[in-house]
Amino acid sequence: MRKMYIKSVSRTTDQSVSAELSILANVTDNQAQYRCEAHNSATEIPLFETKVLTVHFAPETAKIRIEPAELRPGIEATLICDSSSSNPPAKLSWRHEGTVLEGTNNSSKAGLWGGTVSSLELKLNVTQDMDGHVYTCQSTNEMLQRSINVAVNLPVLYEPRFQPPAETVVHGVAGEPLTVALAATGNPSSIAYTWTKDGQPIASTGGEPRIVSEGPILNITRLERSDAGVYTCEAVNSQGSAMINITLQVKCK
């Protein structure tokens, strides 16, 4: 251990001498040893006393790890909150939408500057509806009454899902235009759409056909009686696909 001599302020009375040392403490001073030595011409070996400094400090950072890295419905996920060194050890807690959740595997290990690094896990049974939900970990040094928060948006991968349309049977009038607008959600949100009529593909936007599709939207500029039938829209992303059928009935004017 490297020794460093520090100047102090000495005070002398008739029968004693004292030395005062002022320190602006920081985290690196925690567990530091300070030794005061006293000697005069009558002492062959200096008298000394050693003090170990205890510095309380709060965690500076916290981070959340997600295992496994890719989340899908039906699996169990583990969120791990790691708090940086703190003295005394930080208390960790999990929250979701204002509700405190019960964590598991609360652990600690030696950290920087003589402090303690703390960790707390949260187990989740993943569902599709959890995608985008925010989970927060709070790390608190209760002695200093100081806290930090870190949050994560849960990324759940899932195949496209059509939002239920107002109706699956659509009525139109011959000679009039018609638009069928659907919507699907999924993660990844990059979704490819394909329209078919009675099993036959419908052209996407381009040129000037009478019946065109643009993503989840089907446009017919002028209805004919032969347009009646079952239209199928398929939505595809990297996780899978979904289909929905729309029955079109055409009436004469």
For the biggest β-sheet, the strand order reads 14-22-21-17-18
Q: Which whole number gives the mean pLDDT?
A: 92
| Straight-line N-to-C gap | 99 Å
Reading off the top of the CATH hierarchy, the class of the largest domain is best stated as: Mainly Beta
| CATH domain topology of the largest domain | Immunoglobulin-like
Q: How many strands?
A: 22
Q: What does the main sheet amount to?
A: 5 strands, mixed
The shape is rod-shaped
Question: What is the helix content?
Answer: under 10%
What is the CATH architecture descriptor of the largest domain? Answer: Sandwich
Question: What percent of residues are in strands?
Answer: over 45%
The parts where pLDDT drops under 50 for at least 5 residues are none
* Structural domain count: 3
